[in-house]
Amino acid sequence: MNARIKQYISLLFLAFFLTTKMAGLHVLTHEDTDVKDDCAICHVLVTEHKTAVILQEPEAFVPDSFYPEYQEKQPITTAVFYQGTSYSYHLFSRPPPAA
Questions:
Q1: How confident is the model at residue 27 (pLDDT cuts 50, 70, 90)?
Q2: CA dihedral defined by 53, 59, 65, 66, rounded to 10 degrees?
Q3: What are the domain boundaries of the chain?
């Protein structure tokens, strides 16, 4: 049953796609002797384009006052003491290879 529903939906989309393509190709079938008033498809298209849009009254936009509160970040200080003695093994990150 699920496959049937998918088939029906795909056929519906195919029909819609073909309808829009045929409406676009309709212009090519006209000749110079045809009048727009005689053609039903042209009458529908012209009626659609000339229909006035009735807009509703826009709602007044009132933004909410939102002020985010930021927490103050406490500075972290670390104390570093210099001892005056320098050991050479502090200069390397790993021990020398063992032979």
A1: confident
A2: -50
A3: 2-50
